[in-house]
Amino acid sequence: MWKTLRSMIVGDSEPYGVGLVLREAEDGSFVVSSLVPDSPADESGKIALGDVLYEIDGRNFYRADKGEVMKATLGPPGSEVVMGFKRGLRYESDGVYRVTMVRRAVKGAGQVTRLKVVAQ
């Protein structure tokens, strides 16, 4: 299914993204699970594991459809994307901090997986 969905979004070429790996939590939100080393997300120095994705290019993506999140995250090489996240007390006035990144070829770009939340 991943190959089919990826082909629909970016064709058969390598996807261009920012090196952000998201996990879909049981509540439907998307949580940063890892950053690809030397990727735009990693190089920004602003995104941390556990941050929750709230918006992409000004559009609300909190609890959005996984395919829509992937489609908005990936794009043409050299194109900018502004992603908004929430984390702890590091908020802007609207509760979201934003990071502007430039898409490029990144191994693992556009990965969105399922996360099973375990009660502690």
Short description:
The protein has 3 helices and 9 strands, in the order H-E-E-E-H-E-E-H-E-E-E-E.
CATH topology: Pdz3 Domain
| Count of individual helical segments | 3
Uncertain stretches: 1-12, 112-120
Main sheet: strand order: 5-4-6-7
Report the sheet-strand fraction. Answer: 25-35%
Q: What's the alpha carbon Rg, rounded to whole Å?
A: 14 Å
- What is the SS-derived class? alpha+beta
SSE run:
HEEEHEEHEEEE
Reported for the largest beta sheet, the result is: 4 strands, antiparallel
What is the CATH architecture descriptor?
Roll
> Tally of extended strands?
9
Distance between the termini: 32 Å
Shape: globular
Domain module count: 1
Q: What oligomerization state is this entry in? A: single chain
Describe the structure.
It holds the Pfam family PDZ_6. This is PDZ domain-containing protein. InterPro entries: PDZ, PDZ_6, PDZ_sf. It comes from Guillardia theta (strain CCMP2712) (Cryptophyte). With 120 residues, the chain is an alpha+beta fold. 18% of the residues lie in helices and 32% in strands. It has a 4-stranded antiparallel sheet with strand order 5-4-6-7. Strand 2 and strand 3 form a beta hairpin. Residues 1-12 and 112-120 have low confidence and may be disordered.
